[in-house]
C-alpha cells in the first residue's frame, strides 16, 4: 500500500524538475533569439553605408528648418521673404566663418570686412529682387576692395595680393553665389499657388518659394543618389576624380544624374513646371551640383583639410552641405527667370 505523503513528495519533485526544465528551455530560447537579433543587427549595421545614420539624423533635423525658412512669412505686404533672407544670411555667415577659419594657417584674410560683405549681399539680393538698389553691388565691391587693400597696408602684411584675393573670393564664392537662393525665392512675387498634398493642400505662398524648394530637392537628391549608387554599384567602378575625391565613382555620378532627372520631373509636375524644361534642367543641375562638390574638394585638398566644419554630423560643415547649391542656385535662377517664369506668369 503506497504512502500518500511520499507520493505527494514525488509528484512535487517531478513538478520542480519539469519547471526547471521549462525555465532552462525558456532561457535557452531567449538566448538564441537575442543572439539572432544581435546577428541581424550586426548584418544591417555592416550593410549600412558608413555615416548614413548621422546623415539621416541631420536630414531629420535640417529639412523641417529649411521648410520653415522657405514658407514662413512675417508681414508679407511690407517684407516678403524676409524670414528666408535672414535665414540665408545666417547660413552665409556660418559658411564664411568655416571658409576663413580654414584659411588662417596660410593667409591673413580681412574677416570682418568679408563678413559684412557676405551678409550685406543677402539683403542686397532681397532689395534688388524687389526693384531697389540695382546699382548697389558694384558700389559694395569697390568699397570692399579698397578697404581690404588699405587694411593690408596698415597691417603691413607680407602677402597683400594673396590676402586680398582669398578675402574677395570668399565673399564672392560664399556670399554672392548663395544670395541666388534669395533671388529664386523672389521670382513671381505676384503669383501664389497651393501645392496638393496627400492630406490636403500646402500653404499658399509665392511661387518662388516652390521654385526654391524644387532647386533644393533636385540638388540634394543628386548628392543622395550619387552616394547610394556609388555605395551599391560603384565598388569596382572607375574613380571620377581620384586626385580630388577618391570615394567618388563614375557609377555614382551617373546615378546622381539619373536621380536629379527623376526628381526634377516628379517635383516639377508637383510644382506645375513644364515637363520638357524639367527634363532639361534636371541633368544640368545634377551635373553642376557634382561639379560644385568637386570644386570644393579641390579647395579643401589645397588647404589640407577633410571638411570645413562639423556642425552637421555625417556631412561636415554647412559649407560642405551647401557647396553644390553654390553652383546650382545661380544657373537655376537664370534658366527659370529667362525661359520658364515669364511664360508661367503670363
TrEMBL record:
For this UniProt record, give its keywords in alphabetical order, as a comma-separated list.
Cell membrane, Coiled coil, Lipid biosynthesis, Lipid metabolism, Membrane, Nucleotidyltransferase, Phospholipid biosynthesis, Phospholipid metabolism, Transferase, Transmembrane, Transmembrane helix
Q: What top-level branch of life does the organism fall under? A: Bacteria
What does the record give as its pathway? Answer: Phospholipid metabolism; CDP-diacylglycerol biosynthesis; CDP-diacylglycerol from sn-glycerol 3-phosphate: step 3/3; Lipid metabolism
EC number(s) on file:
2.7.7.41
**Name of the featured protein:** Phosphatidate cytidylyltransferase
Where is the protein found, in the record's own terms?
A: Cell membrane
Q: Name one GO molecular function term.
A: phosphatidate cytidylyltransferase activity
TM ranges are 52-75, 81-100, 112-129, 135-154, 166-187, 207-229, 250-270, 325-345
What are its GO cellular component terms? plasma membrane
Q: Output the Pfam families linked to this UniProt entry.
A: CTP_transf_1
Which chemical reaction does it catalyze?
a 1,2-diacyl-sn-glycero-3-phosphate + CTP + H(+) = a CDP-1,2-diacyl-sn-glycerol + diphosphate
Q: What is its main location?
A: membrane
Which family is this protein grouped under? Belongs to the CDS family.
Coiled-coil stretches are: 5-40
Which class of enzymes does this protein belong to? transferase
Give the membrane topology: Multi-pass membrane protein
Instruction: State the Gene Ontology BP annotations.
Output: CDP-diacylglycerol biosynthetic process
Amino acid at each position: 500500500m503506497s504512502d500518500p505523503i511520499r507520493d505527494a513528495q514525488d509528484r512535487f519533485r517531478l513538478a520542480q524538475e519539469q519547471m526547471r526544465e521549462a525555465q532552462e528551455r525558456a532561457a535557452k530560447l531567449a538566448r538564441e533569439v537575442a543572439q539572432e537579433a544581435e546577428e541581424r543587427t550586426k548584418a544591417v549595421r555592416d550593410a549600412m553605408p558608413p555615416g548614413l545614420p548621422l546623415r539621416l539624423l541631420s536630414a531629420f533635423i535640417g529639412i523641417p528648418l529649411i521648410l520653415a525658412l522657405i514658407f514662413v512669412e512675417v508681414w508679407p505686404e511690407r517684407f516678403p521673404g524676409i524670414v528666408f533672407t535672414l535665414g540665408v544670411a545666417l547660413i552665409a555667415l556660418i559658411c564664411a566663418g568655416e571658409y576663413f577659419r580654414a584659411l588662417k594657417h596660410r593667409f591673413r584674410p580681412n574677416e570682418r570686412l568679408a563678413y559684412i560683405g557676405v551678409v550685406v549681399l543677402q539683403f542686397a539680393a532681397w532689395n534688388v529682387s524687389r526693384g531697389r538698389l540695382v546699382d548697389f553691388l558694384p558700389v559694395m565691391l569697390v568699397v570692399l576692395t579698397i578697404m581690404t587693400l588699405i587694411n593690408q597696408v596698415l597691417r603691413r602684411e607680407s602677402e597683400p595680393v594673396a590676402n586680398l584675393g582669398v578675402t574677395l573670393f570668399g565673399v564672392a564664392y560664399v556670399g554672392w553665389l548663395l544670395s541666388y537662393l534669395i533671388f529664386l525665392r523672389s521670382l513671381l512675387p505676384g503669383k501664389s499657388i497651393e501645392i496638393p498634398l496627400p492630406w490636403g493642400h500646402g500653404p499658399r505662398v509665392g511661387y518662388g518659394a516652390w521654385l526654391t524648394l524644387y532647386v533644393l530637392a533636385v540638388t540634394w537628391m543628386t548628392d543622395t543618389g550619387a552616394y547610394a549608387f556609388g555605395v551599391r554599384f560603384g565598388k569596382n567602378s572607375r574613380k571620377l576624380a581620384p586626385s580630388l575625391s577618391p570615394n567618388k565613382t563614375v557609377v555614382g555620378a551617373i546615378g546622381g544624374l539619373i536621380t536629379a532627372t527623376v526628381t526634377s520631373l516628379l517635383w516639377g509636375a508637383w510644382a506645375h513646371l513644364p515637363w520638357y524644361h524639367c527634363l532639361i534642367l534636371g541633368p544640368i543641375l545634377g551635373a553642376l551640383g557634382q561639379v560644385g562638390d568637386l570644386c570644393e574638394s579641390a579647395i579643401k585638398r589645397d588647404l589640407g583639410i577633410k571638411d570645413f566644419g562639423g556642425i552637421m554630423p555625417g556631412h561636415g560643415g554647412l559649407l560642405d552641405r551647401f557647396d553644390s547649391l553654390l553652383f546650382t542656385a545661380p544657373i537655376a535662377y537664370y534658366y527659370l527667370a529667362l525661359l520658364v517664369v515669364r511664360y508661367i506668369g503670363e
